[in-house]
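agent> Task received from the user: take the single chain below, predict its 3D structure, and emit C-alpha cells. No templates, no multimer pairing.
agent> Plan: (1) validate residues, (2) run structure prediction, (3) serialize to C-alpha cells, (4) report one or two observations.
agent> Step 1 OK, no nonstandard residues flagged.
tool_call: predict_structure(input=
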Amino acid sequence: MIHHVSIPARDVGHVAKVLSELTGWPARPFMGPVAGAVMLLAEDGHGTAIELYPDGSTLTPGEGDRQGTIEAGPTPQLFPFHLLLSLDIEPARVERIAAREGWRALRCWRGPPGKPLFELIEFWIENRVMVEIATPEMLPDYLKLATAQAHDEALAAMRGGPVTA
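)
tool_result: status=success, residues=165
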C-alpha cells in the first residue's frame, strides 16, 4: 500500500488549499524537515497523505549509515511522475476548479490506442504535475484491470500471446 507521496509546488499554500477543496482532506503544516511544506491527510485510517514541498526541494540519498536528506536544488519544469486518486467528486466540479485556477483538466480514457479501458480526469497541478482523478463511476473499470492477472491477460490479448517478464 502506498501511504503518502510528495510533490513539488511553486505556491505550496495555494496548491494545498486547492487540493484540500478537491479531496476534502485537511491540510496541515508538515512535521518533517522541509520548511514551508504542507501535508494533506486523507483521515482514512491508512495514513494516506500528499506532502507538498516547495519548489527546489530535492531528496538526496545519504552515505553509509546516514539517512537521506532534503536539500535545495533546481526543480525541473515537468516530471515523469503522477498519481491516481479516487475521489467522491463530480467531474464538472473538478473541471470548474481547474478552470478557476487556470490549470489543465481533461476527461479522457486510458488504454492502448483504439481500445479505451478506463476513464479518468487528468488534473494538472500548476500545469506541470499530473494527478489522475477517478470518480466513483470511473473507478470500477480501473479496478477490473488493476490486478496482475487482468493486466497480463490484457497485454497477452494485445500482443497475441502469453506475457513473459
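agent> Step 4: summary for the user.
Residues 78-165 form one domain.
agent> Done.
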